[in-house]
Amino acid sequence: MMLARAIDVSRRYGDVIALDQLNLDVPAGSLIGLLGPNGAGKSTLVNLFTGLRKPTSGRVELCGGDPRDAASRVALGVTPQETGLPGALRVGEVVDFARAHFPAPLGRDELLDRFGLADLVKRQTGGLSGGQKRRLAVALAFVGRPRIVFLDEPTTGLDVEARRSLWDGVRAFHADGGTVVLTSHYLEEVEALAERVVVIGGGRVLADDSVGAVRGLVAIRRVSVTSPVPVPDLPGVVGREADGARTHLLTPDADRLVRDLVTHDVPFADLEVRPTSLEEAFLTLTVPEVAR
Questions:
Q1: Which of 50, 63, 142, 256 is the most exposed place for a label (fewest CB within 10 A)?
Q2: Closest CA to 221 of 246, 250, 259
Q3: Strand pairing class (31-35; 179-183)
């Protein structure tokens, strides 16, 4: 069953094309990571799915209906990039206020425990740190026992410990059959959480597959060597990074690169060849062809 669909969707803001005939299906029970540079159209797509905007052309569906209809949004949870919380209310009061809008919400204690907020229940939201406010905003997306949740940059501003606590809450929801779509600039977050990766660039879907398959699409390997001399420019190297005596080279043909190192009499040791990280694949996919 598809809980959300975008069918030939385009969205314009004046002369700017934010989405360009984009298609995306979100099956029930999936956990999808949306990746893309700033301006790629990720937040616009989330806004269309959650009924905050309507497409210029094409069709968007949520739970079988129009996202702008309240009946379609009953099973929806969402955390946008920016949220406002009433500073005079305590955390527990904010959660209780949100719970009052749903017929069978999560218990307050269960929700706060799931997202590591139990010790803040009596704190006024105005006195919370930016990271604590963000954790509360994400927790509120789950208060009504939604079937599908959209999280737009959910862990922006969080430290490592808080980020991992939030990941645990998302995993628990997904393990119970919930559907999650998240956007993120933290590529390790998508690697840690998502079963499926959708890379968006220029308002279009550039890749839609598993994390491993997205890496494989770019067919690039990372070749690392330790050398007492600078490694010269060699054919087929599309990227490099120096770390002291250690040099990391990106190439679509690792075998050829190793042969070239030998042919050019480059002394090296500790050779390592591995697949690209998701970050390297992401950057390669979103670089325009003319810039490669």
A1: 256
A2: 250
A3: parallel
